[in-house]
Design a protein that fits this description.
It is built from three helices and five strands, in the order E-H-H-E-E-H-E-E. The protein is an alpha+beta fold. It has a single domain, classed as Histidine kinase-like ATPase, C-terminal domain (Heat Shock Protein 90, 2-Layer Sandwich). Strand 2 and strand 3 form a beta hairpin. The protein is globular, with a radius of gyration of 14 Å.
Length: 129
């Protein structure tokens, strides 16, 4: 499955977190990650979504793209936020500990996109089965 991309988009609302968690864990397990690694990937996706949802622009969605490579998963999360997100606290410490190549981008306010375009990217360095 190397070179494949799996994408999902959810509304930027707290009620959608369960769907995100379930889909992310299923993806990890389907790719052959160990149970604890799949749970960690689920945790990272949840923490990022939890930080972006409260500042999401009106009607915004969160798009998660998981690109599968031979020895890692590259993840790109994108949305629009009413204000630039602030990344701090224990949850972000956990995220930064579990992933590699973490990057956050936040553009200028875009009225057409209903907010600041935000991207969060990282690599998941766990070997795939």
């Amino acid at each position: 499955m190397s070179g494949s991309t799996v994408a999902m988009e959810i509304e930027a609302r707290p009620e959608q977190l369960g769907i995100l968690r379930s889909m992310t864990r299923s993806l990890g397990l389907g790719l052959g990650l160990a149970i604890d690694a799949a749970a960690d990937l689920e945790l990272v996706a949840h923490e990022i979504a939890t930080a972006l949802i409260p500042v999401a622009g009106p009607g915004a969605s969160l798009r998660f793209e998981y690109r599968v490579e031979a020895i890692e998963i590259e993840v790109l999360i994108s949305s629009h936020t009413a204000v630039p997100p602030v990344l701090n606290g224990l949850g972000w410490h956990i995220v930064r500990t579990l992933v590699t190549d973490f990057a956050l981008g936040c553009g200028s306010y875009d009225p057409a996109g209903a907010g600041h375009p935000v991207t969060v990217g990282f690599s998941w360095p766990h070997p795939l089965g």
